[in-house]
Design goal:
Jelly Rolls; 8-stranded mixed sheet; 29% helix; 4-stranded antiparallel sheet; alpha+beta
Length: 315
């Protein structure tokens, strides 16, 4: 049986950058996803964040609602259960979540469109733990983009000044337990693609992530313990003219015996700087890629946030 998600050891990057970038590029081209083992994100940072995540979502609804910023497009703080839907779908996903964003320096030109993350004082270690994991994933994401750049025959540091102040988000996801077993084949999060450049995803305690292969077959993503899943987002797909695809994925409901267990997941959505113009790379067009109308990262983000229900259209 073909192994679609062959793990790529991060140690290969340190010994043979060309081989690492080729392996990552092959995986991206085939499925839009990759699995990285031996990543540098510390287990303590992961464990501390998960403990804080569980403590936050265990708070009463009114305590969490204080951090709900609907006018701001729910890009920081808390989003209640049943708010977000997949693009093109009306049925809301069975989840609630929290967004931690970038700490901008004083006087940053991006402050007009990037709010500060609220402090969740009810959970003593929440701010420190979430920001520590944010910093680790932001740094590792920038390193992984060096491999992507080499695969695209670009200088290793090509993406550096294009994502260093991006509106990247750490999302803490909670899929509550379902005391009545859900119907077989139903989903917790509808089929969708990610908006951003790349997504870094730490392993969830409960399974359910599936990727739609270009053959039309749904493939389960079950990385080995301690691995990290990375996938292309729509911004990278647009930037590469579709050479690196943003692949449809979903979270399916568990088997009946697991439905009473909550599912926690922690994706990190790495974004371009908001004024960066997403325009197909000439090298990708020469390879057969398809150009789309140039658009800034901020305009593209807002367009997609309206489509998934996080920003509401004005009536």
């Amino acid at each position: 049986m073909k192994q679609y998600f062959e793990p790529i050891p991060y140690s290969l990057w340190h010994s043979d950058k060309v081989a690492f970038s080729a392996a990552l590029g092959r995986s991206f081209r085939e499925t839009g996803f990759g699995v990285i083992t031996g990543h540098p994100v510390s287990q303590k940072a992961i464990d501390d964040n998960l403990a804080s995540t569980k403590a936050f979502f265990a708070l009463p609804a009114d305590a969490k609602e204080k951090y709900h910023d609907a006018p701001g497009g729910r890009q920081r703080g808390y989003t209640p259960f049943g708010t977000e839907n997949a693009k093109g779908q009306t049925q809301a996903d069975l989840k609630e979540f929290w967004h931690t964003g970038r700490d901008l320096p004083p006087g940053s030109p991006y402050r007009g469109t990037m709010k500060d993350t609220p402090s969740a004082s009810e959970v003593p270690d929440f701010d420190r733990a979430t920001r520590a994991l944010y910093a680790s994933l932001d740094s590792f994401g920038a390193e992984l983009l060096k491999g992507v750049a080499l695969h695209l025959n670009l200088p290793e540091d090509w993406f550096g000044d294009k994502v260093n102040f991006g509106n990247s988000i750490l999302r803490l996801l909670h899929y509550p337990p379902q005391m009545d077993p859900p119907p077989e084949g139903s989903v917790r999060a509808g089929a969708h693609e990610d908006i951003n450049v790349i997504t870094l995803l730490l392993g969830a305690e409960e399974a359910g992530l599936e990727v739609k292969h270009r053959s039309g077959k749904w493939l389960g993503v079950n990385p080995p313990p301690g691995a990290l899943v990375i996938n292309c987002g729509d911004m990278l797909q647009r930037y590469t003219g579709g050479i690196l695809p943003s692949t449809t994925h979903r979270v399916v409901n568990p088997a009946p015996e697991r439905s009473k267990f909550p599912r926690y997941s922690t994706p990190f959505f790495l974004h371009f700087n908001q004024d960066f113009l997403i325009e197909a790379l000439p090298g990708c067009l020469a390879e057969g890629g398809r150009a789309e109308k140039p658009i800034t990262a901020q305009d593209f983000l807002m367009e997609r946030l309206r489509e998934i229900g996080l920003v509401k259209e004005r009536s």
